Amino acid sequence: MMLKRITNGLFSIALGLGLLGVVPVSAEPLDVNDPTPRWIEVRFEISPEEEPGSLDRHWSAPRRARVELGSSAAVLRIEIPAVEIEAQFRSTGADTIPGSFTKFIWVLDPVTGHVLAAEVSGEVREELSLGPFRAYAQVEISVEMNTARVVGYLPNQGIFGVKTNRLCKPGIDEGQCVAVAPIRFDPTRGYVNAVGMVRAASPLAEIRAFSPLGEVEFSERPNWIPDEVVSGPSRGEALCSQTFERSCPADLGGEL
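Predicted structure:
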């Protein structure tokens, strides 16, 4: 349902832009050979819950990110602001704890295209089923991904009524372990698929699940995009788009 709302919302935006005579411009892929600190854009692939390893199917609205040299001249550091990653979580239906998220930090080797690390942490609320009772728990999550090795997931696992896709090691763990291969950064489109784990811990349990957050596209940010764009008769009716800096309205995971 949430994915359907996102899709319908983006279609309405595209139609509105066409009526206004505004044509979205395709952003260029991130130039990893340019070490200049600058703002860029990132889009997340949104896989169906039952197929977290599916690739290149549905994409989120663009989010802000910043690229700069890392701890050495040999790596790039990409930071996705905490407010942007919270908005991305909300757009997929997660009940985030405001202010609990860190920046989403990516460390990229521009020569090999490998993601050396991609990490973020924060807190969400989850509804738990305890027999005939239902309760809400505050869950700490931490994500660790890279492109060093293949990982997998066990579909349709669950605990306390919360569906998860538990992390597994293909060829080692027993059962139906679905392998997901990493994909190094592709400079022709800014695409990368880092794989790894999301650790979720609450007072009742701790699980290690497959993380679907590593499939992204990094793009250069067109210089002509203004800092603020408000279209329509009011801020509440403002359009959001891949060509605008402002985040999308709340039901698409952003803020007005």
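Summary: The chain has one domain: 2-227+238-252.
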